[in-house]
Protein: ABC transporter ATP-binding protein
Organism: Ignisphaera cupida
Amino acid sequence: REIIVVDNVTKVYRVGDVVTQALRGVSLKVFEGEIISIMGPSGSGKTTLLNMIGLLDKPSSGRVIIDGIDVSRLGSREIASIRNTKIGFVFQFFNLINRLTVLENIEMPLIPRGIPKSKRIEMAKEALVKAGGDVSWLPKKPTQLSGGQQQRVAIARAIVGNPRIVLADEPTGNLDRASAKVVMQTFLELNKIGTTIAIVTHDPEIANCTQKIYIIRDGQIVSIQIPDTSKCIL
Ligand code: ADP
Ligand code: ADP
């Protein structure tokens, strides 16, 4: 079953007189339970594509269908609700809020859902352990943790609401090899329990751990490669 369908999506950015065609008719389908990666040169449209899939921004034309719902027909409030319940995001620079504790960062996506505090703490703990972290981090500030540890907290925040889809933009781009390995291990474990995962990466040793590598160049998917699992970072 297809959980993500991108159908002939284009994206044009206009900044003053500068027009950038970031996506030029991209189509792809990701099946439920798949783990895929997206590779390509800087500026080729990888982040833009991930933002379209993640409903962070609207295509200029074409359709994005998430879990059978054609999002192009929906209003922004309905789109936000799909994003918040079905999708978790992980970023290169973690995007944690440094003045909040680790616990407050992780539980944040649960607050708009009206989940009571005690339940939020329980869910945050479970997510942090699943993400390869340690509950002793919960009262700390993110800046008291290493980069690798902060990324585990960010993954915990992404998965705390049990999303069906996790999207990651260069999740290991700022990490040493050992931390990158832990992060990839975590993604594979999440995938094993049925989470669909898409990872934008420059790192062949990350892409080779996934099931399919989409190569994007100048706003178009130019090939789909079969990973060489012997070259996976694990
Ligand atoms: P990648 O992730 O592969 O590096 P991006 O998707 O970030 O590529 O960018 C694709 C192209 O679109 C680039 O030329 C970039 O400068 C441009 N772009 C991306 N986001 C914006 C934006 N918000 N406004 C204007 N141009 C943008
Ligand atoms: P990445 O490291 O994933 O390639 P970028 O540095 O391309 O990310 O983009 C970071 C942010 O800046 C994104 O939100 C993107 O939409 C925005 N952005 C990228 N290029 C431009 C641009 N030319 N003009 C305005 N915003 C941009």
Remarks:
- The helical segments are 46-53, 76-86, 102-107, 117-130, 147-159, 177-192, 204-207.
- The pocket of adenosine-5'-diphosphate (ligand 1) is lined by residues 13, 15, 20, 22, 40, 42-48 (CB under 6 Å).
- The beta strands are 2-15, 18-31, 35-39, 61-66, 69-70, 87-90, 165-169, 196-200, 212-217, 220-225.
- The mean pLDDT is 97.
